[in-house]
Amino acid sequence: MKPGATGLTRVIHAAGYSWLGFQAAWRHEAAFRQELIGVLLLMPIGVWLGGNAVERSLLIGSLLVVLIVELLNSSVEAVVDRIGPERHPLSGRAKDLGSSAVFVALAMAVVVWGLVAWERFGSF
Q1: What is the reported pLDDT for 3?
Q2: Where are the bilayer-spanning segments (predicted)?
Q3: Does 37 have pLDDT greater than 80?
Q4: CA pair distance 12, 96, nearest whole angstrom
Q5: Each residue of 65-78: pLDDT tens digit?
Q6: CA separation for the pair 81, 60 (Å, rounded)
Q7: Would you call 95 exposed, middle or buried from its count of C-beta atoms within 10 A (0-12, 13-18, 19+)?
Q8: Exposure b/e, 49-80, CB count within 10 A at least 16 = b
Q9: 104, 72 Cβ separation under 8 angstroms
Q10: Can you list the domains of the chain with their CATH numbers?
Q11: Which residue has the higher pLDDT, 76 or 86?
């Protein structure tokens, strides 16, 4: 068992590390900045658009999934870049897979928002 902080101290340390991660993503990742701004703009619209708690949860949750996947993608890219600047097929594959995951998360958000809007407003 690894020694270290436990209980509330561990939670406080973990929150601090999370905050450092958010700061790093904001500072170094343009895609994260763009997506976070989009999420902050769309969240109030999601609260208004959703007709009940489930719809609101889906609308806002699908946006948060985009941020989660972007953070994971950025972490993969940072590790690959740390290994070295030379091109390697596995490094390219790792970055491409991360990018694909972000695309799928964005597509999911579009589908969720589209279906809820369709339900609310009828066919367009």
Answers
A1: 67
A2: 36-54, 60-80, 101-118
A3: yes
A4: 34
A5: 999 999 999 999 99
A6: 32
A7: middle
A8: bbeeeebbebbbebbebbbebbbebbebbeeb
A9: no
A10: 30-121 (1.10.287.3610)
A11: 76
Using the structure block, give the residue that is written with the tokens 């996947």: 69
What is the 3-state secondary structure of the chain? CCCCCCHHHHHHHHHHHHHHHHHHHHHHCHHHHHHHHHHHHHHHHHHHHCCCHHHHHHHHHHHHHHHHHHHHHHHHHHHHHHHCCCCCHHHHHHHHHHHHHHHHHHHHHHHHHHHHHHHHHCCC
Comparing C-alpha atoms, which of 43, 56, 38, 65 is closest to residue 119? 56
- Catalytic (active site) residue 70: yes
Q: In one letter, which amino acid is 64?
A: L
Can you give the C-alpha Rg of the chain in angstroms? Answer: 18
* CA within 13 Å, CB half, 75: 11
Of these residues, 29, 55, 70, 119, which one is catalytic? 70
